[in-house]
Amino acid sequence: MSKCEIDAYYSLASEIVETKNRFMPGVYDKYNVKRGLRNEDGSGVLVGLTEIGDVHAYIYDEGEKVPVEGRLVYRGIDVYDLVNGFISDNRFGFEECAYLLLFGDLPTKSELDKFTCVLGSRRKIHEDFVRANILNAPSSNIMNKIARLVLTMYSYDENPDSTDVRNLLRQSIDLIAKFPAMAVYGYQAKAHYLDGKSLYIHNPDPELSSSENILKLLRPSGEYTDLEAKVLDLALVLHAEHGGGNNSTFATHVVSSSGTDIYSSIAAAVGSLKGPKHGGANHKVIEMMDELKNEVKDWGSDEQIRDYLTRIIKKQAFDRTGLIYGIGHAVYTLSDPRCVLLKEQAEKLAKQVGRTDEFELHKKVEKLAPEVFREIKGIDKPMCANIDFYSGFVYDMLGIPVEMNTPIFAVARIVGWCAHIIEEHLNGGKIIRPAYKNIKKRCEYVKMSDRV
After folding, report:
1. Which end of the chain is more exposed for a tag (fewer CB within 10 A), N or C?
2. Could you give the CA distance from residue 182 to residue 4 in angstroms, rounded to a whole number?
3. Which class for 26: exposed (0-12), middle (13-18), buried (19 or more C-beta within 10 A)?
4. 121-152: b or e for each residue (b if 16 or more CB lie within 10 Å)?
5. What dihedral do alpha carbons 203, 207, 212, 214 form, nearest 10°?
6. What is the mean pLDDT of residues 151-179?
7. What is the largest CA-CA distance in the chain?
């Protein structure tokens, strides 16, 4: 068959497949199926227990769901307290956060020093691995590259399948340590071999934090300011964990419950995070704001900004989906604590790099978007900016390429994933196997000679 004939086949066949696989409207309601494992009020269906992370966005008052200011808790500790702790000490916090999520308690200074020493000793990726698996096989998508590298690590592990705690902890620390270099090297290979840019490969420094190593590996000069590294460090802390029900973390529970190895579970989580409905949203905020900057002539005009946001909601602007990216969240209502904390540091960074006008524009959109949404849709639903609204802007100010936005998310979330994998192996017991109801009516088998 020629290429044209094959293309024609796929066009016709896909129409048939779509028709045969699309359900009739209302069928989910008929069988009381909780789509997306969500209750009618938007809360998640309870399917498991965890002591690792918790998201708090509402309370129930006499059976009614009441929105409250958002709270994010790591191992029982409010993330506001955790962040204020290391910021007030003027130190990096991601490694402390990783220890907390893995071990369940805040480390003493000696415990943290020993942990960061072990972490630092595992950061470097052997040059043969880099050459064979990264430079010689670039991918147009860095998340795809990371997933492949994670699966490849299985072959380099002398004890890949054991799921006892000691082995899982060893593998977890190794993954957390190597993820920054894996992500950056994946980008460097793409930039050079697919985009024609210069190739820069730096070795990670065992004495530096994760955020410092990311900036060192990404930049040709390897240089960065203390504020730049501290802001990126905060972003990593805020992305490290978000409870057991988010899509990628739930994927680690599902896959780990089968008893498989950690690399298979992490690869599944990376694939989940790659999706535009999960980790791939912050680049949409950047694209939307770029269009807004061009469309709105006076950034100080609330009226012009409102007009543009109105056109977005009416599907007349940007990608015509009607979505204002970075505004609203599946759980948070009045505020997203991650957004609140990152916004504070984003302002400091904007002043340092001379982009306060853009920061002020973000603030205006954050304020006006919920108002315009309520006016157009007529729905009085609490709506706040989520962390994606400022994280993309922060990464852009740091000179981090947009292709690296979701990989940076993965560099942070690998900590939460590993903690949940250990928790699942210790407590899960049973393979996760929910029910699916077959709604297809029985039909008779027809012999080939009788088929029309």
Report:
1. C
2. 39
3. exposed
4. ebbebeeebbeebbbeebbeebbebbbbbbeb
5. 30
6. 98
7. 80
Does the active-site annotation cover 298?
A: no
Catalytic residue among 239, 242, 253, 329: 329
**Nearest CA to 69 among 331, 332, 326?**
332
Q: How far is the C-alpha of 100 from the C-alpha of 79, rounded, in Å?
A: 11
pLDDT over threshold 80, residue 418:
yes
User: In this predicted structure, what is the pLDDT of residue 60?
Assistant: 83
Q: What is the mean pLDDT of residues 114-138?
A: 98
**What's the pLDDT at 124?**
98
Strand locations in 123-237, DSSP E? none
Unique residue bearing structure tokens 């796929």: 10
Q: Are 232 and 214 in contact (CB under 8 A)?
A: yes
pLDDT digits (tens, 9 = 90+) for 5-35: 999 999 999 999 999 999 999 999 999 999 9
Residues 187-198 have pLDDT tens digits of: 999 999 999 999
Which of 174, 336, 388, 396 is catalytic? The answer is: 388
- Nearest-angstrom CA–CA distance, 123 and 213: 9
The two tokens of residue 190 are 């793409």
pLDDT digits (tens, 9 = 90+) for 381-411: 899 999 999 999 999 999 999 999 999 999 9
Helix (H) or strand (E) holding 426: helix 405-427
Give me the half-sphere count of Cα atoms (radius 13 Å) on the Cβ side of residue 212: 14
Helix (H) or strand (E) holding 61: strand 53-61
Catalytic status, residue 329: yes
DSSP 314: T
Give the tens place of pLDDT for each residue, 230-248.
999 999 999 999 999 999 9
CA gap 434, 246 in Å, rounded: 17
User: Is residue 244 within 8 Å of residue 50, measured between CB atoms?
Assistant: yes
* Owner of token pair 């993330």: 79
Q: Take residue 386 and report the two structure tokens written for it.
A: 């989520």
Q: In this structure, how many other beta carbons lie within 10 angstroms of the beta carbon of residue 397?
A: 19
Q: Which of 323, 269, 310, 43 is nearest to 151 (CA)?
A: 269
